[in-house]
Amino acid sequence: MYPAKIDPFFRRLFILSALCLFLYALFLMKAVIAPFVAAFILAYFLNPLVSRLALIMPRILAVSVVYISCFVVMGALIIWLVPMVWAQMQILWESLPHIITWYNDTGRAWIARYTDSELLPLDIDLISNTALDYFQNNYQVNDVQGLIKQVFSSGLTAANNIGLIVMVPILTFYFLLGWEQRLHTWKLSVPKPYTHKVVRIARDCDAALMNFAKGQFLVMLLLGAIYAIQLQLIGLQLGLIIGITAGIASFVPYLGFGIGIIAALIAGLFQFGLDWIYLGLIFGAFMIGQVVEGYILQPLLLGDKIGLSPLWVIFSVLAGASLFGFVGMLIALPVSAVINVLFHYAYDAYLRSDWHEGQRQLPLWKEDD
Fold this sequence. Notes:
The protein is mostly helical.
């Protein structure tokens, strides 16, 4: 009695179908998986600090200390930052009528003088009516019942999103608590002949990510302070919020500089008018920030942590934006750092291979005798 054998084609078809169904199920559950992914990323970056504290105390206590410290720091930042940002937002709101007046009286005339186009004047009532018409046409709240249903539906969606956000710290806690056990389990799952190599590659990827994350965080913090202090010294009323935003956005190369200088020049134009001295000072502030970032902050804090040339940095950011939008821009450099490490290992393996040494070649590439 011979054992039944499964045809290789049907076995591969079954594996491929099962894999497609699994990926489709993950796609359907993307809203549920998102907080787990966010929690895993947070746990990954917090784990080094927890591991150091775990050397002198139980791990659950180390996780609790790190959590409490993070909440205290975030609370202090909010208490210090929110009033200043709120004051800046009030200044922006109070400046809107002056901005519209400047546009109608000065900006339109300047544009008409140097170009052939004449822009329409802005009217606050017209803007309000246009926004109201858009709201009515797109959200269909012609009766009270429809409005209540829409508000209720939006409230449920908001509550669901808030619930998922609240889950992230809880999930991060459990990820941190069992981090070492999970790493040990994953290590045991690797085939024994490849364990040493896989662990070494993982450690190099981990070092590249950690060095980049720590250096980039300090660059963002210091660059935001440099922009904000310079703009405040110039006298730009919105300098604080523009500088902080530019510093945070500098996580994506060239994005912080672009957003900051455009917003600062527009704000300066509305506040100072066509005063070339003030506009030149604003432009010079961002040029100084770029020089400090490129020649002081990045060499000292980042150095060659990623190992990518400026051309590859730009390509990575554009490719990430093209594939995944704004999220792709955020993860472009960390992902590129990991790919760079994997590429170097693959290239070294290729240089040591029989194929590169000429001992083994494909028949198509062999030279005729």
